[in-house]
Amino acid sequence: MELSDYLRILRRNWITITACSLVGLAIAAAASIAIKPTYTAQTKLFVAIQNSGSISDLQQGNTFSQARVQSYVETVGTPAVLQPAIDSLGLDISPAELGRRVKASSDSNTVIVSISASDSSPVQAAAVAQAVGDSLVATIDKIESPAKGGASPVKLSVVTPATAPTEPSAPNTRLNFILGAMIGLLVGVGLSILRATLDTKVRGESDLRRVTTAPLLGGISFDSDATKKPLLTQAPSQSPRAESFRQIRTNLQFAHVSNESKSVLVTSSLPGEGKTTTATNIAIAIAQSGQSVVLVDADLRRPRVDDYLGLERNAGLTTALVGSADVNDLLQHWGDDELYVLTSGQVPPNPSELLGSDSMRQLILRLESAFDAVIIDAPPLLPVTDAAVLAQRVGGVVLVTGSSRVRVQDLQKSLAALSMVDAALLGVVLNLLPVKGPDAYAYSYYSYESKSGRSLDAVPSPFRGGAKRLPETDLDFDSLVYPNRPPTRGRNSR
After folding, report:
1. Bridge-partner residues for 265, per DSSP?
2. Interstrand relation of 425-433 and 396-402 (parallel, antiparallel or unpaired)
3. What are 114's strand-pairing partners?
4. 248 and 316 belong to one structural domain
5. DSSP one-letter code for 160
6. Both 104 and 216 in a single domain?
7. First to last CA, the chain
8. Do 120 and 103 belong to one domain?
């Protein structure tokens, strides 16, 4: 993966990363509160050679004292030093226990010995450090004294007496918070990368490009109001949702410009990706541009177009395919533009056979001759074969892909199914995209809030008063296809 891929993963999973960082901080805070405060006091001793000779003698003595300092540091942890300190303080502990609380050190090229002691009481810590320092002075004086008597050549002097500390040395709350946040951050990043590695869902354009190079006709952001108001006419004219469908309409016209056929099949990989609402709104958008459009509900298993548009479903596509009625008598006009709808009709027991029949092919040809555009809503590709069969009868296919609704493997299977029947894939529409984040597609430029203050309910809608009835003389389908035949009076029902 490239750097941009990792940045996209971090943006997608920022909530997880933030949550892990906060958990790390909470654990650090709990640990800091749970740990009993510890105070550390320190005393420093100077090692000197008792020699008042020449400069050469002083240099040799200094070298000698530096060599002896490390030995004195090691002597601090011996019972010879610790036991006298225990006795002077009246402590009820062993030298080994005291040794775990006392540490000695020295800097290189110096003759300074530092002794530190830790305790839950700052006063006790200072007392222990001072007692151990005094005990070391006495012990070294005794050890370094000549066997035949006389003064010791080495003298240790306390240069920094131990004092009671004002702040605890442990726990280091600031350090704990920093470590907790860093560890939580690393855990969050690791989980995000692992999740992205195991995640096979198509969430945005970047995931789509890993599967196919087909043109992206447009993206539709998720809108919570779309469930109750799915139609383009129910959205403000300058809303991002309306602009998205206009963009798809424009891109679809360019993608379809070299094709003589006027029919476009709209399908998806799985149910629930929004293919029916996309097909319906594409048809509405094309009709709003001044073209004549017919929307055909060819989803003969779960028809939904009639529900969205408020039309009659009992007589429709299946009625025409079985020859029970002429298609001109089944078309229903909708809205104020030149949009006509052919609903599904009764659900048949053999949808695939009907959609793959010669009657369906002839019907599509008749519709293409009479309208500027034919939009066909088909079933999903993977559950049934209806869409693949019907894809051979149309000029092009638009594949709707729902963000986070379909896996990469499913999308690959859908593309393979279309390729197997030599279907012309015009492009892909990404639906249900997040409004913000790395996978967002649509960007609003104009404010779509009504300046007049009117709510959406005040905007005229085809649902109010029902779909308009097509006048008998508005469309004579047979006269368009068969100019020499006497006109037939159209019959449209709601």
Report:
1. 376, 397
2. parallel
3. 44, 105
4. yes
5. E
6. no
7. 55
8. yes
- Residue 335 is assigned to a structural domain of this protein: yes
Q: Is the pTM of this model over 0.70?
A: no
**Three-class SS of 333-379:** EECCCCEEEECCCCCCCCHHHHHCCHHHHHHHHHHHHHCCEEEEECC
Tokens 């240099």, located at residue = 59
Q: What is the CATH number of the domain that holds 54?
A: 3.30.70.1130
Among 61-65, 231-235, 345-349, 418-422, which is the least confidently predicted range? 61-65
> Phi first, then psi: what are they for 450, rounded to 5°?
-65, 125
Q: Residue 92: is it exposed, middle or buried by C-beta count within 10 angstroms (0-12/13-18/19+)?
A: exposed
Residue with tokens 């990043």: 189
Number of domains making up the chain: 3
Cα separation, 295 vs 284, in Å, equals 9
Instruction: Report DSSP state, residue 106.
Output: E
Whether the bond between 171 and the residue before it is cis, its omega within 30 degrees of 0, is yes
Tell me which residue of 283, 266, 273 sits closest to 232, measured CA to CA.
283
Q: What CATH number has the domain bearing residue 213?
A: 3.40.50.300
Which residues form the domain of 25? Answer: 3-35+172-198
21 vs 25: CA distance, rounded Å: 6
- The distance of Cα 447 from the centroid of its chain, to the nearest Å, equals 27
Report residue 152's pLDDT band, with 50, 70 and 90 as the boundaries: confident
